Structure formats: C-alpha cells, structure tokens
Amino acid sequence: MGYGLAVLVLGFARGLRAQGTSLLRFRPLARVVAVPLEDMTTRWRARPFVADGMTLDTAATPNQPIRITGMLVRTEAGDSTPERFQAVCLRCPHEGCDVDLVRDPKTLPPDIIAEVGHPLTEPVYVCPCHNSTFMVETGERLAGPAPRGLYRFRVTSVTTAAVEIGEVEEDVLLFV
Q1: How many domains in the chain?
Q2: Which residues pair with 46 in a beta bridge?
Q3: How far apart are CA 24 and CA 152, in angstroms?
C-alpha cells in the first residue's frame, strides 16, 4: 500500500511539472510592452525591456507603481507565434541581483558547470552574486541558492510589427 501511495504522489508531481506555466498566475501589466519583431528574427536573439506594473493589494506596499526589468528571447526559429518567445524578470529570486545572459556557456567558470552537473550547450542566465543559473528557454533554476526559477512574463501576442508582453507572474508583484 505504501508503494502504491508513493507511485500516486510521484505521478501527481510529474503531472504538475508537465503543466508548467499553466499553474503560474499572471497579472496584466499597466501597459503592454512592444518589442519590434525585426529585432527578434533568429533563435537566441535577446532584447532587454522595462515593464510597468502595480504591486498587489497584499504586498508590503500595496497598489504602488513598479518597474520590472526583463529580457525577451526568441527560443525557437520558425513562425512568429507567442510560444517561440520567452520573457523573464532579470532580478534573481535569491537576493535580488540582476542576472546576466551568458550566450556562450563555454565561457562559464568550471565551478558553475560543476554545480549544474552537466555540460551546457545553450545560453543561460547567471546571477553574478551567488551563481544561481537559469535556463533561457523557461527561466527554470538549474543550480545555485535561488529558491525558484526566474519570474516570468507572458508574451500575449505577436503582430507583424512587434512581440507584445502583456502580463507578468503575479508573485513578482509581491516581491520586487
């Protein structure tokens, strides 16, 4: 019976992980951020941006305007659908340092590679304060003391002119 319960819990946990961002709660930004589509033509092309939001009612300082720095990256080649782009907050969830985009993982120090536990072949975000490392494709934490992955923005639309970022993960409106 204990084995059956363990299998059930493991299956449930895998299901939650597979759902990924569907479990995250997003809130609208004060205004949509538009990044020119012509700046995002190839895979791993990145563009920083600044978004305006409003702290939540339950934040330490409720209903206050805030600015959130982010990075938009084209993670897949092909058509220009929202799924081909990823946008994350550049503030590390550990102690609030701004993370850096490392385009060539071969330039990472050996101690970061050792902590990740496997060779990296694609760009990553690295926090320069304590070496928390995050996947560019999802913002997921790979290593380091950060308690979670990077806070995410939602690409809400792609037009012929721009990639539009219209929402941010709700938790960033509590902690930034």
Answers
A1: 1
A2: 73
A3: 9
Sign of CA dihedral 21, 120, 112, 13: positive
Residue 117 inside a domain? The answer is yes
Give residue-wise pLDDT tens across range 68-98: 999 999 999 989 999 999 999 999 999 999 9
Count CB neighbours of 64 within 10 A: 12
Strand order of the sheet with strand 133-135?
100-102, 124-126, 133-135, 141-143
CATH number (domain holding residue 112): 2.102.10.10
With H, G, I as helix, E, B as strand and everything else as coil, classify residue 151. Answer: coil
59 secondary structure, DSSP code: S
pTM above 0.85, yes or no: no
- Residue 5 in domain: no
Domain that includes residue 103, residue range: 26-175
**β strands within the chain, DSSP E:** 26-36, 46-54, 65-74, 85-89, 100-102, 124-126, 133-135, 141-143, 152-158, 162-169
Specify if 105 maps to a domain. Answer: yes
Q: State how far the Cα of 120 lies from the Cα of 43, in Å rounded to an integer.
A: 17
Q: How far is Cα 162 from Cα 158, in angstroms, rounded to an integer?
A: 6
Q: Do the domain assignments include residue 57?
A: yes
